[in-house]
Amino acid sequence: MNLAFDHLVIGAASLAEGEAWCEATLGVRPVGGGKHGLMGTHNRLLNLSGPGFPRCYLEIIAIDPDAPPPGRARWFDLDSPALQERLRVEGPGLIHWVARVDGDLDAQLNHWRELGVDAGEAVAASRMTPAGELRWRIALRRDGKRLSSGALPLLIEWGEVHPADGLAGATVNLCKFELSLPQPALLAGLLVETGEAHVHAQLQTPLGLVSLQLMT
After folding, report:
1. Which of 74, 88, 92, 144 is packed most tightly, with the most Cβ within 10 A?
2. Residue 1 in this model has a pLDDT that exceeds 80
3. pLDDT tens, 172-195?
4. CB–CB of 147/82 below 8 Å?
5. Has domain 3-213 been given CATH number 3.40.50.11290?
6. Interacting residues of 177 by C-beta distance below 8 A, sequence separation 6+
7. What is the rounded CA–CA span in Å between residue 186 and residue 112?
8. Per-domain residue ranges for the chain?
9. Where are the beta strands (DSSP E) in 12-142?
10. 131-152 tens-digit pLDDT
11. How many helices (H) and strands (E) are present in the chain, helices listed first?
């Protein structure tokens, strides 16, 4: 069962700060997005699709101050006091990435468990968009922790619709994604080097090339 790159996750102390970061750093304003009732978060999106990385995007996400507590740890380590402090002091940054499962998410999670990695359970999630309800299944740990400090991706299985399908044509493109892990066999289908956990993404933007390093 192979995996494919799906999207980058930019964490922010507030969605307004994330939007401002996107305009200042990438030269464009993010669009779309919505609210995640399951997690008490909200987001904005930016299409990154290009020849080397089709059907992919950037997600800017923050805790929704108007949402009730979700009753469980939020995804992407957003409840971590240490990460919250870094986002508050240093501003928005790359905190995680998501890989798309080409097949059965439950089978992929079982495979990872056989390799000694517990990525949690498959959970159904959704949010409303102008075109209707967007649905997916995503692997979530009860503690919300990022595996390998965010270098090992969250796994997702989309329904019939993918977010990139409804986004405007990309003016920012993902042109390079470099990844190293102690266990590269976990990510069959993706180019992974063996080594310490590391993520580096390079984007072609209206402001030139922009490099993003994982905020651990």
Report:
1. 92
2. no
3. 999 999 999 999 999 988 989 999
4. no
5. no
6. 5, 53, 199, 200, 201, 202
7. 7
8. 3-213
9. 35-36, 41-47, 57-63, 93-101, 121-129, 132-140
10. 778 899 999 999 999 999 999 9
11. 3, 12
